[in-house]
Amino acid sequence: MNAPAAAALESPWAMIRTLGVVATLCGVIIVAAYQWTLAPIAANRRIVIERAVFKVIPSAHRIEPFIALPNGTIQPAGEALPQGAIRFYAAYGSGGALAGIAAEGAAKGYADTVRILFGYVPGCACITGIAVVSMRETPGIGTRILTDREFLSNFQALDVRLNRELSGLANAVQTVKHGTKTRPWEIDAIAGATVTSRAVGRAIDAGAQRLLPRLAPHLEELARRP
Amino acid sequence: MSASKASAAPTAANWDEFIEGLWRQNPTFVMVLGMCPTLAVSVSAVNALSMGLATTFVLVCSCGLVSMLRRMVPKQVRIATYIVIIATFVTVVDYLIQAISLALYEALGAFIQLIVVNCIILGRAEAHASRRPPAPAMLNAFGMGLGFTLGLFALGSVREILGAGSLFGVSLFGPDFQPWVVMVLPPGGFFVLGGWLLLFAWLRRRGAHAVAGGEHVHGA
Q1: A74 forms bridges with which residues in the sheet?
Q2: Which of A84, A114, A152, B88 gives the lowest tally of CB atoms within 10 Å of its CB?
Q3: In tens digits, what is the pLDDT along chain A, a chain of 226 residues?
Q4: Which residues 6+ apart lie within 8 Å of A92 measured at CB?
Q5: Are the beta carbons of A37 and B73 separated by less than 8 Å?
Q6: Parallel, antiparallel or unpaired: strands A174-176 and A186-188
Q7: Contact status of B38 with chain A (Cβ, < 8 Å)
């Protein structure tokens, strides 16, 4: 074996040592960055949700997070979400009365999943506002669900009454073609942004169909909470 | 006299390292690298600028660490080592962007994680940082990063101005402006990129002609 060929050969130990040192160093950097940013990220997430809740329930003064469990009970929310549980936010007005409930719904949009937060007012059994938690819809087209006044007016009192058995909505929330809305549970789509409009309708329907039947027996209990 | 020459030489070399990526070997307009994030996230100026700066951070940190470790990394495991280092700084920048703004994080989407496979970074680590000391390697990476940021911003600003009638979210033309929706769609990215590539090619050609003309006059 000539000298250059011998020099090109590295011992396996040297390679493993190098990879081990680099992996350890990189591990330390990642963990340090994670620990350093943990609190600001959690604070940012809380702020995003709080802003969304205050937007969909403008009369809210205080927000309490809860979870509705599959066995029909509700309890204050912790960090972890048990399997099958639905997180929601009870919003209380300045006098301490229950102003409304905010919960998330999600459905596939044009580019990705559209996640929205909707505000539910038990008094009228209707949805009174929506806010977008996350979406990657086309700017200028799908994003019009945030700015189109005519579309947003659908959520002044969108009917989400429960059926007699309290097992689901009396009428599924539906998005209809622009200008054809005739019933209070219908959403008038934005012309040119139908896919995203329909995603909003499906997200509200899915979220309300899951949460409201579980919530209905506990509304008085939530209203009595200090 | 000799002292002044010694101090001037490194400065010129450093400037050369820096300017290489910013202009002569601009990753977007000359090397046409990193097209995936360039076209995908350049729908607005703020997204473009953020993506460019995130990539610059990863480039500078990765090239710095690769350069520092260059004598101890065997050739046989160098690619694995570089990828681990790049992935580390992408993870760091991922956390940092989440800590700065969740809205920005959502807007940039999966393209933050995809910085790991951005060919500009691995290319700089392999072709440059692994052969140079940390300072010039990081300076070169900084120039490349700023060049990439410049490219993204050039696309993002034009697309936002024409596609939404605004720049950094500030309306420029009033409520009567009819946005060119195509500009915020994928074809718009290709149109604007094509326009910038034409402009850059013309500028480079004109510069080359000017140099050739100057040499000709000087020679005569």
Answers
A1: A68
A2: A84
A3: 444 444 456 788 889 999 999 999 999 999 999 999 999 999 998 888 888 999 999 999 999 999 999 998 999 988 788 899 999 999 999 888 999 999 999 999 987 889 999 999 999 999 999 998 888 787 677 888 988 899 999 999 999 999 998 999 999 999 999 999 999 999 999 988 899 999 999 999 999 999 999 999 999 888 887 6
A4: A60, A61, A62, A63, A64, A98, A99, A225
A5: no
A6: parallel
A7: no
How far is C-alpha B100 from the chain's CA centre?
21
Structure tokens at A50: 């709080």
Q: Which helix (H) or strand (E) holds B26?
A: none
Asked if the Cβ–Cβ distance from B99 to A37 is below 8 Å, we say yes
Q: Domain residues for B33?
A: 2-169+178-219
Any CB–CB contact under 8 A between B84 and chain A? yes
Alpha carbon distance A205, A159 (integer Å):
11
ipTM of the complex: 0.81
B residues 121-180 closer than 8 Å to A (CB):
163-164, 179
pTM value is 0.76
Q: Is the dihedral of CA B54, B58, B60, B61 positive or negative?
A: positive
Nearest to A41 among B81, B92, B99 (CB): B99
Contact B43 A134 (CB under 8 A): no
